[in-house]
Amino acid sequence: MTQYEIKAPQLLNQTIKLPASKSISNRALIIHALSEGSILPDNLSDCDDTEVIIDALHNKPYEMNIKAAGTAMRFMTSFLSVKKGEEHVLTGTERMKHRPIGVLVDALRQLGADISYTGEEGFPPLRIKGQQLKGGLLEVPGNISSQYISALLMIGPTLSDGLTLRLTGKIISRPYIDLTLWTMREFGAEADWSSYETITVQPKPYRERTYYIENDWSAASYWYEMVALSKNRDNVVRLEGLMDGSKQGDSSVRYIFSLLGVKTTFETTEEGVPTTVTLRNTLHTVPRLEYDFVNSPDLAQTFVVCCALMNVPFHFRGLSTLKIKETDRIEALKCEMRKLGYVLRDVNDSELIWDGERCAPQEEIAIDTYEDHRMALAFAPAAFVVDGLRINNPQVVSKSYPHFWEDIKTAGFELCNFC
């Protein structure tokens, strides 16, 4: 097992080129393939999740192993369903074989897809025989993973009758759905909300085009966390390649972190133009933070760690999807935060609360990452507060931010490698 011990610098003054957006890259790749174009999107993410999609689309092996990439599993399931004349088995890691996919498979089967389970019912691996699907009206719960909904939407333009998707009940992660619709329209699709709960996709083929992918606001969140935890007005971090008015749901990070004292300044606010964002700490924070992460659940780990270490009690809602991520993130956060001396409570498998309760921290703190990139990324900035902090299996960051450790070393962090 690899382990890093992390020592934070006294001063942060660094310009960082963030990775490209994984969310946009994965959507653009699927849509590009459905357009049958030859011009790959520019500035694609180099993370594991995107690389497995690139490999599957380029090499087209009979058995496609997408490893631990949940997005790839959902998106490729839909994509392969409409690839007429092709047959593939879609599989992944042992953890992936225990991540549910039945809701998506059932929905695709209603559209006429030929999908069967090769193992446990409701879970990968899947055997998929592609064919022309008719489409039409489809109802799915609105509180499922937005990746299921996005997977269905992206194949909509290829369906003979298009797709009318009606979402029932509470709709979660709406910004991710909007990101999918926006990316689809960038490639010529006619797809939009026709009512609060209904999305209509016309049977109009995608068109090929050149396409540039902006950098990742999710990755930016860890630098915001560093600035917040450093508690130094002189610290400054500049993040390259972000856009004001971004369609990425996690761009909300700049608003939430303003409540924890981090000020964001854009070099330019021209729409659609990548720019440099400067972060500074004002040292002004709210006494308590309540927030509903239903639209941006991937930010939850960052704020759980950051708020507790800043001694800001919190009540976070909208976390139901954290149970079915790379790991059960709610339980993982409770366990690892206890190592640091913070006692978290969860409610209804969808809320996390810290009311200031403390316990004795471990003497030698080593954070387990549970094969979950965001556990490593969210806990690394804790080095500003926790002396001798260690991260187990730190290489998991390659899933979304492959050069994270190189970036923080450039920013002055010291990493001691234990094997």
Features:
UDP-n-acetylglucosamine1-carboxyvinyl-transferase, Chain, 2 domains, 4-stranded mixed β-sheet, alpha/beta, 30% helix, 419 residues
Structural overview:
- With 419 residues, the chain is of the alpha/beta class.
- It has 2 domains: 3-20 and 214-418, UDP-n-acetylglucosamine1-carboxyvinyl-transferase, Chain; 22-201, UDP-n-acetylglucosamine1-carboxyvinyl-transferase, Chain (Alpha-beta prism).
- It is built from 12 helices and 20 strands.
- It has helices spanning 22-35, 48-59, 70-81, 102-110, 146-154, 174-186, 217-230, 253-258, 300-309, 329-340, 373-379, 404-410, and strands at residues 3-7, 13-17, 63-65, 87-91, 114-117, 126-129, 136-141, 163-168, 191-193, 198-201, 236-242, 262-266, 275-281, 289-292, 314-317, 345-347, 351-354, 366-367, 389-392, 414-418.
- The strands form 5 sheets. It has a 4-stranded mixed beta sheet.
- Strand 3 (63-65), helix 3 and strand 4 form a beta-alpha-beta unit.
- Helix 4 runs parallel beside helix 5 (146-154).
- The longest helix is centred in the N-terminal third of the chain and has 14 residues, at 22-35.
- It is globular and about 60 Å long.
- The mean pLDDT is 95.
